[in-house]
Every structure is written in C-alpha cells, then in structure tokens.
What we know:
The complex is a heterodimer of chains A (about 675) and B (about 190).
Chain A lengths: L1 H31 L15 H5 L9 E6 L5 E7 L4 E6 L20 E2 L2 E2 L9 E5 L2 E11 L4 E6 L4 E7 L8 E5 L5 E5 L4 E2 L14 H4 E10 L6 E10 L2 E7 L7 E7 L8 H4 L5 E8 H9 L4 E12 L6 E12 L8 E7 L2 E6 L5 E6 L4 E6 H10 L2 E5 L2 E4 L1 H4 E6 L5 E6 L4 E6 L4 E6 L5 E6 L4 E5 L12 E6 L15 E7 L6 E8 L6 E5 L1 H4 L24 E5 L2 E9 L2 E3 L2 E6 L3 E8 L8 E5 L7 E3 L4 E6 L5 E6 L12 E7 L8 E3 L15
Parallel strand pairs in A: 14-19, 37-40, 39-45
Antiparallel strand pairs in A: 1-2, 1-35, 2-3, 4-5, 6-7, 7-8, 8-9, 9-18, 10-11, 11-13, 12-13, 13-14, 15-16, 16-17, 17-20, 18-19, 21-22, 22-23, 23-26, 24-25, 27-28, 28-29, 29-30, 31-32, 32-33, 33-34, 36-37, 37-38, 39-46, 40-43, 41-42, 41-44, 44-45
Chain B lengths: L1 H6 L2 H4 L3 E7 L2 E9 L4 E3 L4 H10 L12 H23 L2 H31 L20 E5 L2 E7 L1 H30 L1
Antiparallel strand pairs in B: 1-2, 1-5, 2-3, 4-5
Helix pairs in contact in B: 4-5, 5-6
Amino acid sequence: METLINKFRKMAPKAALLMAVTAGAALQSCNKMGGEGAATAEGLDTDAASKVYVAPGKHDELYSFLSGGFNGQVSVYGIPSGRLLKIIPVFSQFPENGYGYNEETKAMLNTSHGFIPWDDLHHPKLSRTDGMADGRWLFVNGNNTPRVARVDLKTFETVEIMEIPNSAGNHCSPYPTNNNEYVIAGTRFSVPLDMEGKTADVSMNEYKDKFKGSISFVKVDKETGDMELDFQVLVPGFDYDLANGGKGPSTDWVFFTTYNTERSNTLKELGASQNDKDYLAAINWKLAAKYAAEGKAHEMPANYYHNKMDHGTFQAKSTIKKKVRYLLPEECPGMMYLIPAPKSPHGIDVDPTGEYMVVNGKLASSLPVFSFSKMQQAIKDKAFDGEVSGIPVFKYDAVLQGEVKEPGLGPLHTEFDGKGNAYSTMFVSSEVVKWSLKDLQVKDRIPVYYSPGHLMIPGGDTEKPYGKYLVVMNKITKDRFLPTGPELMHSAQLIDISGDKMKMLLDFPTVAEPHYAQGIKADLVAANSAKFYKLDENKHPQAVKNEKDVNVTRKGNVVTVKMTAIRSHLTPDNIEGVQVGDTVYFHVTNLEQDWDVPHGFAVMGANNAETLIMPGATQTLKWVPKQEGVFPFYCTDFCSALHQEMQGYVRVSPKGSKVPVKFSTGEPKPVPPATASVN
Amino acid sequence: MIMAALSLGLLFLFPMWKIYLKAPQYPEGLEMHIWVNKISGSSESVLQNFNILNHYIGMEPIHAESFAELRIMPYIVIFFMITGVIVALVGIRKLILAWALLLMVGGAVGITDFYLWLVRFGTHLNPNAPIKIPGMTYIPPLLGSKELLNFDALSLPSTGSLGILLAVVFSGLAFYVSRKKKISQKVTA
Lengths: 679, 189
C-alpha cells in the first residue's frame, strides 16, 4: 500500500500539470472561436442531435429525478432531451405553490428544532420491488437536520418527512432494500449522544471517547409507503458517507463507506486523511432486524418529528415520537463487519449480480473491488485483522477481488450497465472511466466538464440496469453555458453508453446542486400520474363543494372564509367585516374537475406566499391585515380567458368597528355562473 | 319480433347520441353522451367542463334534472319493449306494422325534441355574457360536424340508437316473414 500512496504522490503534481495544460489548450481553442462557447466535448456523437431530439408533442423515454442539494428540492428531467419537467419541493418552502407556506403543508417542515424551511437534499432513491425500481415512491434525505422524506409519484408531491434522531448530517441515506423492507439512513457526523434524545454538552476534545454514529432502519409499509423508525445500530464514531444495498446473493446486506476513522475532531481535511485505510462497513440488515425482534434491542428516550400528508384532507400532521430502539454491534455477533478500504472512500457500489462491491476511494490511486463470496468465506475462516469496538475487521486481501489500476484521479462514484461494465466518475481528472468487472481493466474514458460528482445509469444501482444512457452530474460549470454572473447552474451531461465507446450527447443545466439521481422508464410512472383530485373525495374540514355553501364567519378575532374558485370567479368575491389585527384564514376549494386547471390565490399585503390549489383540492392562506382599507385578492394562475377578471376585495375596518361580516358574489347575476355539479 | 323488442334494451346499455368537442387546449377532446335516461361523458365531470366553457358565451348550464325527457323516455322505451313482446306473442300481423310505425314516429319525435333543445341552448343566450359575437349562435350540429369558435363540434348517433334501428329492422323482418308464412298457409290450405 505504501508504494501505491507513493505512486499517487508522484502522480499528483504531474496530473495537476496535465490539467493546467489541458485547461490552457481549452482556453486557446476558445479564443480561436472568438470567445464563444467552451471546449466541444471530446467523443461527441456525430448524430448527437437526433439522439437527444424529442420532437414537439413527443415524450421522453425516461424520467430522471435529480436531487437539488442545497435547494432542498428534487428536479425531474426527461431523458434523453434534458428537459426540466418539474421541481418537487421537499425540505424547502416553495413560494411557487405555497408548499411550507400554506396552513396545510407547514407541518411538513416541523422538526424537534422547530419549523425549518430548508435542508440540503442529496440522494434520491426510488422504491423497489424485487430489486427493481417500481415507480411508486421516491425516498430522499435531508442532510443538515437529519430527515428522510417520501415523495408519492402518483402526484409528485412530498407526502411524508421523518426526522432521524441520534444523527447529524444524514448523508449516508436513504438506501432502500430490494423490497423496501427498510430504508437505511446513516449519520455523516458522529456526535456525542446523551442517550436521552439529544447531543451531550461535552468538549470536542472528548471526540474519541464520547462521539458515536448511528445507522437507522426505517420500516416502509408495503401498501401505503408509510415510514416508521424500527431501530438504530449505534456504531463507532466515524463519518458514514454513502451506502449501497446488496443484490442477489448479498441481498441481506448493506454496505457503508466510512472516513475519519482517525476520529479527528478538527481540521478534518488533514485529520481525517491520515490513515492509509478507512473502512467499508457491512451490516446484515436481516440479521439486525432479527436481533431487534428477538429482544436484543435497548430503548432510549428520543424526541423526533414524523410529518405525514393526508391525501384525503390535504393536511399534514406532525406526531412527536418519544422513544427509539437501538442495537449495539458488540452484542450482536455476525451483524456487522469492517473491510479496510483505501483512504476516505466516497461511493460504495454493488454490481448488478450482487457479487462485487466497488469502493471509490477519492484520495486513492486505485479502485478496489471486493468480493461478496470471499467475504462469506472470510467470515467462515475468521480471516480477521483485529476489531474496532467489538466489530471484526477483515484482512484486506481475504476479501479483495482485485484493484482497477490507474483508473484516473479522485474516483467518487460508480454505476453499472448490466453488460459487465462499470462506469466511475473521476472528480480530479474530470472524466468518466469505463472498466470491465471481468478483468478490472479500463476500457474507455471520456472527459466531462467539469469535475463530476455522481453519475447515474437508469437502474444502474439495481439488478437490471437500462444500459443505454449515463447522466453525469458535474460540480463545476464555468464556461459551459452563457455566463450568468458569479453564480451558475450546475451542469449535467448525457452520455450514450450503448456501444463500446462512450459518446457524448448533451449538456444541460441543472437546478442547484444535484448530488445523485435516479432514472426510470417513463411508462412505469406516467401511467399512474394523477390528473386532478376528485372533489367527492375531498375530506378537508373546511372544503366547500358548492358555491351555495360558501361563508365567512367570525369567532373572536379569527375570521374563517370558506370560498371556492372556478373559471372565472372566486366566491365570495366581496368580503366585509374583517378588522385590523384579525387572523383571516382563506380556505379555498378549487371546484374544477379537469386536468391542468389550478387556481392560485393571493391577497395584497399578506406576509405569505400565494397558494396554488389543484382541481378538487382545498388550501388555506393565512393573512393578518395590519391596516384598514380595501385589499384585492385574485387568482394567480392564468386559468382562462377571463382569468384577469378572477378577482375580489376584502374590506378591512378598524379594530372594534361596527361593520358586520358580509359576503357576496355577483349581485345581480351578470353571468350564469358555472356551478360545480359533480355527478 | 322478440328480437326487435329486446334490441331496444341497447338504449339502457349504451348512449343514444354523442357530441364530441375538440379544441386546441383540449387535445384529449370532450365528449357528452346522451342516454335515454341520463347525460354523461368521456370523464366523470364532463358536464361541469361543458358548462364552464359554455358560460363564457352565456349558454344556459346543462343539468340532467332540467330535461323532463330523461325521466319520461325510459318508460316509453319500456312500453315499446313490453308491447313488442305482446305483439310477438299475439302474432297479429297488423300489430307488428303498427308497432314499428309507432316506434319510428317515436324516434322522429325524439330527434325533433333533441334538435329543439340544441336550438334552445344555442340561441337562448344570456345578454350579459362575457363573450358576445354579433349574429353568432351556437347551435351544435344534430348530425355531422360544425365549427363553433375554437371548438370543432361533431355529433353522431351512438350504439343506443342502433337499438331503435335494429328494432325497426327486426320488426320489418318479422312483418315480411309472417307474410310468407301466410302465403304458404294459403297455399297449403
């Protein structure tokens, strides 16, 4: 290993020089072209245009779900066109539709720390049936304030967010097992646990003794998708980076990369880079579940939020959980092992057969591939090299299948095409490298622009990848698109991997910072996509299903307006009797029962976003008027030819005024109103 | 003849008439289905969607409750079915002819009534409608297609009406066959 490190040390300056030269060349060629555009991709497919062209009115072949990173959202792109289809708000307030602003969805963002309007969303993972993405749900993680969320792919809406206790930096998350038995979430930052639901008030110098990590096993209901934290495994105080579930023979296992096994508490860029090897942790989740069921689990107090959206009432409700069960590896033989892995690994990726575990050691000069069958043998032979906190550590050579030599610099992440090939991103040398699982030889490499993080092959993390396309998500954009000031969109690139040689097809800008993505054949999702909500099934307590039933009522200083929206009027549209300092709730029901006819609702001066109401749904906007006068409200989504006329007024009188509560729409009737008549 | 009576049952299983609307923003189309006893459409809320579109031009909203015909017609159809069976059993030839003629008259009255409704909806417009085009009326076609502003309206009889047609054909056939029988009876006599 020493020699490898030395080699890397020798190589690094050369590589840097090489990079500088390449960059220089790129800049020069740029100048020659009159400063227009960046380096044309090497390996550009001669027929790229027709391969990514989706004619007007035609649909893309695949959906892709890209995490938004620091925007707390998920972006949905069509592949191969790279067209943005939707942004799904998850951990962030979204003024565009009122998510996290209206009364129904606010509770989705509740945590034990109070209301949090933001998080850092890293990893989308599609729910699975028999090891394959089934298109039902998308699980995503919130990194900063540890949370796992579930997006329902019938409506493309966030329906559940659960806080993860005893965790900090929920990065190693969320990894579903092959039938969603569990979604697994590991902590990136180990923290001192007070074993009562909080982190302890201790000095950082006590890291080595007091800091612990946790890996959470979240159970998923087979029918509803509802999540429940079943138990946690308390693990040594490393940083847990990424995870990947086994497949086929390794289906009962899940693997985690770790770094900072040095357990350094400061200047981790050095402190966590001292050990020659960190670990790949392997946990037998089936055995862990068995131990938990058989009474090996301890229990400790906890305090975490579980927020669920009810599809019938459109309302999110929070429940606070007060307990959590946990397992200790030293009490559970055979449940957890450590595999020495090169320096500060990032991605761990299990190939489609479930036999090979590829570890992407971002500071290492080779890419080690471990063998699951060798690991099983090593367990039998007790081929261990000591233990850490009671967890056996394998001998490196006993579990190693081989190393991919000189794959490139800074390997971060690998996926598979199902044809025996693996594709790895090289952050430092800015390329995607194709290599063979059979002989571990590099077969092809293609430069990408610039510095890729993760890549995604649709189904490339499952048993049967769709080995036609590869999407690589680059961390640095620079000159790829027209400049837009200092802050740029991130850049993704689409690569054709159907042949021997990788062919570059397309650059497309992506929202915020995608860390990872999932891809799935369009028909698995499109066929189930809801068009609108049925008014009949709307169980919102303040829903009004007929214009005749609208009303405005006062109780103390709370004014409740139950109103309706339909093309092209709001009922009521003249409201009086509201006073300064009242809390006014506008419960707006969209009476439409047609596809793509949302109505928006906004009031002048409301310290709030608008709320966008889908057909058949009810949403509530809260407004506290601060001054008297007349305040217009209107529909914010161009709904019809008379959208501009879809507006009304609220009169606000001084506190204690005698103006009675009064409301109306259209007297005398100017237009025969199109009243809702479902059935 | 029994076949003739039974084929009227199709009226309860399928719509009599369908009106198709197509516009740029309705790529999936809107279909209104007129049954002997109800109005439905290609989707659950099609009537509401028809009414929303129609209210811009001041057309009266269409509600199944406003058509007395939808309440009466089922009885008329049942009347024809029962009398058809009776005619078949009694076996008086003239009655077959009378039944068939009466049915044809009934059908003609139905179509006329339908047309009058179309005219009423198409011309009886609210004078305060948001969209007013001088001289424009919106009578949907009785049969065939017609362009109404941004909509292409197509109106066609549907499977239910086939029931009436079959009833007429079968009763005609019964009439014809029984004539032959009579002749052969005469010959043998």
